[in-house]
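Students often ask why we bother encoding 3D structure as a string. The short answer is that it lets us treat folding as translation between two languages. Here is a chain of 321 residues written in the first language.
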Amino acid sequence: MQGQRKYRGNSKSVSVSDFFGAGQDALGLEIVSGQDEMGRTISEPAMNRPGLALSGFLQYFAHRRVQVLGHAENAYLLSLDEATRVERIRKMLECRVPCVVITRNRKIISGITELANESRTPVLKSGMITGDFVNRATIIMEDLQTPVMKIQGTMMDILGVGVLIMCAPGIGKSETAMALLRRGHSLVSDDLTDLKMDSSGVVIASCPTGIRYHMELHGLGIIHVPSIFGVASVRGRKTLDLVIKLARAETLRDAGPDDPNAVVAMLGSSVTCVTIPVAPGRDIAGLVEIAALDQKLKKLGHDAAKELDEKLIKRMSEGRD
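And here it is in the second language, the structure alphabet:
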């Protein structure tokens, strides 16, 4: 597809360093030891509290996850004699866990840092309550592992419908977006859009941080959208419901009839795609608006083309009778 920049497979590889960078402020993370081993890969987004592993049962140990030692795990380890405690921790770390996080700013139990250095395992700590840490850290990990695509296109929210407008340079997607803004619709991103798939399989569009809330118009340069149209004219993110391709009318003359069931693949998800011919005098913004409203009706179960076909077939059938 023209304009497609980057797609990072089904999931992004996340290192302990990535996790630490994303959670340093949000989770209050600090590095206790193993700073040189932060390149270890975290394969699964969920956090794991290794109670059974510390008891010696390792058969179903979720060793690919971040291991979280909270109040219960610390209390259990302190209840063991030193030799048993060292052996249990060593056995857990020998499974090549990505890293260990100690919550509630607990004092590091004697032996953990030494054994972690021995197995080259990073140890982090956080002041958060364990349950809160697990919930927030899991969300951060899921976000880090989400499939991502950067694509050239302008994303709009048109009456609740997320519309991505794409075209070759110079056809007028930014001008179309400006006309839609004047009609009261909202901008998500101009010219470059980030796409992510959430855990439910829905594609979410947002704007790269550096260009958020700005548009570039030929002849005018850069404008700050909310300063001109108000704060209601911008959105931080929006689900992707419809892709609209703008193409010069002369390039579509021999393309044949429109396909009402056309779709385009985005991060493995099929999104309805409409191609609109651009020619002098055509109200492209109005056509985009109608396409978005038609898509909204289809989601509500009203397909105009299908309903018309059914009516014509019924009338023809009644005429034959």
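Translate back mentally: The radius of gyration is 27 Å. Keep this in mind for the problem set.
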